[in-house]
Amino acid sequence: MADTGHCIVGYNDEARVSDYEGLFEGGACPVCRFGLGPRTARNIDLASLPNGSVCALGGCYPILLIYARDFVAALTDSERGAFSMREVSANGVATDYVELVARETVAVTGVKGAEYPTAFQQSWTCSRCGRVKFVVEKAGYPYDSVFVSADAIPETHLFVIDDGWRDRIALVWSRSPAFVAAAPDIVLDPIVALPPAEAELPSPPVESEFDWVF
Ligand SMILES: [Zn+2]
Asked: Are the beta carbons of 136 and 149 closer than 8 angstroms?
């Protein structure tokens, strides 16, 4: 298993959305609370302003991500083409954040011979909407490593990975200095490119109650 030469962008701050209604075409799954269907045209409005360059939005799932304009400014024109960009407001006032809604995503994969821990609802299948989220535990790799089948990785310098929880930006490492210069607080982790024969799609246990749904 070789390093793909790609990294994945994590988040370093959190913010709350003032109102989740109407953000997804199918509303929210009543069981897991993840959004159903595509994002609607409705823009995100925050209840308060975060500080970080990449922020997760809590309070409902999926955890949407927003990006500071400084980070977005590092995207080339062709990289911007991977997204539709949405303005983000806070209590109705314009902010320096944008949401990047991916046009396409690459799914993470499990690894043959790996464990998929279920404690604290790390790995699960939603009983209602069928969403699957899993954490891969594989000897020799750090906890929560991101595995992608090598044949699913596009030729582009940037693509978007759906890790089951949120859509995250993946970059070739050679592009990362431009983003670190623009947004020094960003968190980058390596991606593991798996030979397709070593990839598998796990079937975590079906859950009908989730810790984050009250
Ligand atoms: Zn669900």
From this structure: no
